[in-house]
Sequence to fold (101 residues):
Amino acid sequence: MSNVTITISGRQYTVACGAGEEAHVERLGALIESKIAGMGNTAAQPEARMLLYAALLLADETQEATERARAAEEALAQDYEATAARLEALAGQLENAGQAS
Fold:
């Protein structure tokens, strides 16, 4: 186990993580920090509320990305099915052409 210190809104947090995951945890902390910074003036907000808003923004982005990925998977599956149907039709045409010869 390792410990990583991340800074969010000027406050430092020490977070435990697995060996080799330090850079990943630092990137996650930077992502949270960027969400908070993007909210504008948060000086008057309690820390817990700022973190809640950042978590909600990140959860919203995650949900949208999941929905886009699901839609892309469905479109790809439909493309595969259509391609398979075309290949089967072509194979049938080739088979019929071979029998006619």
